[in-house]
Amino acid sequence: MYKILKKEQLTPLIFSMEVEAPRIAQSAKPGQFLIVRCGEMGERVPLTICDFDPKRGTVRIVIQIAGVSSNKVCSLNEGDSLTDITGPLGKPSDFMEFTPDEIKSKHYLFVAGGVGAAPVYPQAKYLHSLGATVDVIIGARNKDLIIMEEEMRKVCTNLFICTDDGSKGEKGNVTVLMERLVNEGNKYDMCVAIGPMIMMKFATLMAKKCNLPIIVSLNTLMVDGTGMCGACRVRVGGKTMFACVDGPEFNGYDVDFDEALRRQTLYRKEEQQAAAAAGLDFLVRK
Amino acid sequence: MANKIERVPVREQDPKVRATNFEEVCYGYNKEEAMLEASRCLNCKKPRCMDACPVGIKIPDFISEVLKGEFNKAYEVISEDSSLPAICGRVCPQETQCEGSCILGVKGQPVSIGKLERFVADCHRENSKDEPTPKAPESNGIKVAVIGSGPSGLACASDLAKMGYSITIFESLHKAGGVLTYGIPEFRLPKKRVVEKELQSLFDLGVKIETNVFVGRTVTIDDLMEKEGFKAVFVGTGAGLPLFLNIPGENLNGVFSANEYLTRNNLMQAFDEKADTPIFHAKRVCVVGGGNVAMDAARTALRLGADVTIIYRRSEKELPARAEEVHHAKEEGVKFQLLTNPTKVIGDENGWVKGVECIRMELGEPDESGRRSPQPVAGSEFIIETDALIVALGTKINRLIADTTPNLDTDKKGRLVTSSETATSRAGVFAGGDVVTGAATVILAMGEGRRAAKAIDRYIKERY
User: Fold this and answer.
1) Which residues on chain B are in Cβ contact (under 8 Å) with A240?
2) A81 at interface of B, judged by CB pairs closer than 8 A
3) Of B120, B242, B394, B407, most Cβ neighbours within 10 A?
């Protein structure tokens, strides 16, 4: 069992939890993810890793209520335990192979959509700690979905906030900010976009327009997360890849986002029925 | 003459009823049936059945104990060579192994060796319920790690534990058993009654298990040996990644690997409405492939309410699945579209499967596997309408262990290269099962696990 040591509510629907998982805390690297399970009939839910502390033997996860399973996880309190956590899964970010000297001279642009700020955090933290110039854009539909603003500010060079409705930061979506930053003369070596699939699609289109290389982190459907089932397969550069073992990070230019978006809807009907049955009416699309 | 008796039929659930539930299909023999069937064995001087058993179970010996009603003795005889008889009695391809070599099979029906093995194991389990748990053997304090809790890992762990080693199994999933848990369905291999009991007897020997440890990611083999004090490691991680068709449309919504479909249903219990994990409920399902996994997926889909067709490129004779599974699948109403190969998955305007384009095949000359190789018949394309396509074409190796363990040699396909004694190119690292052989059977994997246990014991005794 994996005890929850600390729980924080970041927004009405987004929670942060610090969980005892010593092995994962020892081995996790930026770019990787994990899978949690809650209850004996629980689903395996892939989640990003927001932070990890090898000394304390803890990992931090940030999770948004998006269905029955995430709601179960979010209903747990400090002192409760998750039934299972497996990880770290997937490959670490490419820059983990770079030497500190190489990183020092790099200029990174991170684009975080909503809860995507969580997996951006350890990446920005790592690069910033090694002296890279790190700009971060956090964007969301409205101010209630913007998370980790103050923490992020400490691990980056410049932080930009935007919301679709203008309720916080600049009005507009992340691509508007991306384009402006590039037009202002910022020379980025690499852009990394993590968030909803649709946001990563448009961030990639904007990156292409700006001639900016871009890495995206794909949040596909998964069951085991170890390469065994192929539920996470995605077309990258015309080839079928498994997000869990070949990714989760891929060159955005190569990803078939339309296929990835379509594959995410595979169990939409079942998810909606389950949400309705569990009384999670706010998740049910009319 | 003993062989005048007809092979004793085994009692089974009615096909119409079982097609709607996940209870075990076969009820197995009772004592009288088992003893009668045992009386058919000729007790050959040179038992061909034994030679054909991948682990060399002393088949005539255990059968003669059954004949005498000495079921516990029969169990002891089997246990000398097999650690999972309740499982192998259910899932071994007996018709190509022991029963396929039985002399009675030349003119009539071979002895029902698999059913007898299963009877002996089930009988032992039922009768040993009230006995006190056997005490774990005295530990020699030497730690050995077993990676993967499938058939090879379980067999290796069991033998080493009996020798006194301190064993920890590392399992990547949240539940132990490997393919016995995520792959083979309940209706063929009951989880609570059989698999969990076998696992429990292992834990009674003092074997520890750490679930949720994906070796290569959570911890490396070097970490286990250098930081955690394991003197040897057995790698029994299985075959890994499912193969897909490599035809247009394979990523349409409604195309699944059999691994995914079975894992959702078996490991995640999606057939139970209390489970949180969804499974795709289709009216019509096509399954591509002719092995046991294809049969399992087809019969699972059938039980979930679908009209199911198996598409296989060779003819019925070449179906690699156990004969009993093919027979059961047919009885339950699974249709077979033989000598047929998919060429394209067809989707509707939203990208959901609505059909599969196939081509008819004919059998040509035998290929290197000895099976006649199927050739497409030009211009014979046709479409089968379906809502889902489940692909059961086998697996390829997950290279994670090899990639994260320096100097661990693999072949071109990524399989770990081992000596005849299961040793890999890294001192202290042994391997067996599908990760060495490619996809094979439970009994072969188990046999390899046991051989590795012997090799590990020798290796450790030479050094420590």
Assistant:
1) 244, 250-251
2) no
3) B120
Segment A97-114, tens digit of pLDDT: 999 999 999 999 999 999
- Chain B interface includes A149 (CB < 8 A): no
Cβ pair B278:A41 closer than 8 A: no
The HSE-up count of residue B128 (CA atoms within 13 Å, CB side) is 17
Q: Which residues of A touch B263 (CB under 8 A)?
A: 223-224, 228-229
pLDDT computed for residue A117 by the predictor: 95
Which of 3.40.50.1240, 1.10.10.10, 3.40.50.20, 1.10.1060.10 is the CATH number of B2-127? 1.10.1060.10
Residues A8 and A56 in one domain: yes
Task: Give chain A positions within 8 Å (CB) of B240.
Answer: 227-228
Q: How far apart are CA A15 and CA A9, in angstroms?
A: 4
| Domain shared by A8 and A77, yes or no | yes
SS3 content of chain B, % helix, strand, coil (to 5): 35, 20, 45
Question: How far apart, in whole angstroms, are the C-alpha atoms of residue A46 and residue A225?
Answer: 8
pLDDT band at B1 (very low <50, low <70, confident <90, very high): very low
Q: Calculate how close chain B gets to A187, using CA atoms only, in Å.
A: 34
Using the beta-carbon criterion (under 8 Å), do B172 and A224 form an inter-chain contact? yes
Its ipTM equals 0.94
What does the radius of gyration of chain B's CA atoms come to, in whole angstroms?
A: 23
pLDDT digits over B222-253, tens only? 999 999 999 999 999 998 899 999 999 999 99
Chain B contact present for A131, CB below 8 A: no
Q: Which of B170, B246, B276 to mutate to test the interface with A (most CBs of A within 10 A)?
A: B276
Average pLDDT over residues A279-286: 82
Instruction: Quote the number of domains for chain A.
Output: 2
Residues of A in contact with B219 (CB under 8 A): 23, 26-27
- In terms of phi and psi (left: phi > 0; alpha: psi -120 to 50; beta: otherwise), the region of B329 is alpha
Strand partners, B340: B360
Amino acid at A168: K
- Put simply, the answer to whether A267 touches B280 (Cβ < 8 Å) is yes
B398 contacts in chain A (CB < 8 Å): 226-228, 245
Indicate the pLDDT class of residue B2, thresholds 50, 70 and 90: very low
Establish if A235 touches chain B: CB-CB under 8 angstroms: yes
User: CB distance A223–B241 less than 8 Å?
Assistant: no
**What is the CATH T-level fold of the domain B143-240+397-463, as seen in this structure?**
FAD/NAD(P)-binding domain (3.50.50)
pLDDT(B127) > 80: yes
Contact B218 A24 (CB under 8 A): yes
The 3-state DSSP class for residue B76 equals helix
Closest alpha carbon to A146 in A134, A157, A162: A162
The dihedral built from the CA positions of residue A142, A147, A153 and A155, taken in this order, carries a sign that is negative
Residue B286: both structure tokens together: 């096509």
Look at residues A68, A89, A110 and tell me which one is the last residue of a structural domain. A89
* Domain match, A118 and A190 both: yes
- CA B25 vs. chain centroid, Å, equals 17
Region B70-80 average pLDDT: 93
- A276 — contact with chain B (CB < 8 Å)? no
C-beta atoms of B263 and A228 within 8 A: yes
Q: What pLDDT digit, counting tens, does each position of B176-215 carry?
A: 999 999 999 999 999 999 999 889 889 998 999 999 999 9
CA-angle at B215, arms to B211 and B217, nearest 5°: 110
| Cα-based distances in Å from B55 to B88, B269, B342, B459 | 11, 32, 37, 22
Chain A residues with CB-CB distance to B350 below 8 A: 262
Out of A23, A235, A274, whose CB is closest to B251?
A235
